[in-house]
Amino acid sequence: MAQRSWSQLPRDLIDRIFRRHMKIGGKGIEPKDLARCSLVCTTWRSVIANIWGKNLSLLSSPHRPIHMRILAEYQNFQRDPPEGCKVMFVDSLFHWEAIMIGPRSSPYAGGIFLLDIHFSDQHPFKAPKVTFQTKVYHPNVNQQGGLCLETSWRPLMTILHVLLVIYARFNDPDPDDPIDFEIAHIYKTQRTQYEERARVWTKKFATASQISAIDWS
Questions:
Q1: What element of type H or E holds 165?
Q2: Which residues are annotated as catalytic?
């Protein structure tokens, strides 16, 4: 590790870390691979910083600050993940998946909800796009799983802040600023019916079997 070179690392170690066969020195190592590797330990972070600093072909210069910002958000999240939530990369630093566990004190208890997260190439000046891939009965989520973040997003915010707000909405919906007005009306006027429907949807759509194929190792 003294020279901080990929070529000095055991072949099986490289394959295990990246979860596929890599061509060292070729075009096989992507930013998400380096980001995942940088989470291993301090020594690895030093190796990654060295490579990122010298091989600028990995990050085109206009987007390099954005990559580093998103990577920092990911690392901070993994160091201290909030209760009931996990994230992972999908195919790039700009595309994540998240899993949320429905709070026990809510109608969503026992549910496992999958969310898709896309960062803009203008991050953090443009809000990330967060979408529920699991159907959820909620006044602040539309029928396609969409959420409205544009009005509340600020450049100083991080995806951690966003996910914490979303998680809090399981227990505390905001019917005065809804996306689905019909569900908001039911929440305001027929709370028992709202909670029962939320439980039914959770049991039907947000069970562990829905996401059993996802690799979170």
A1: helix 159-171
A2: 148
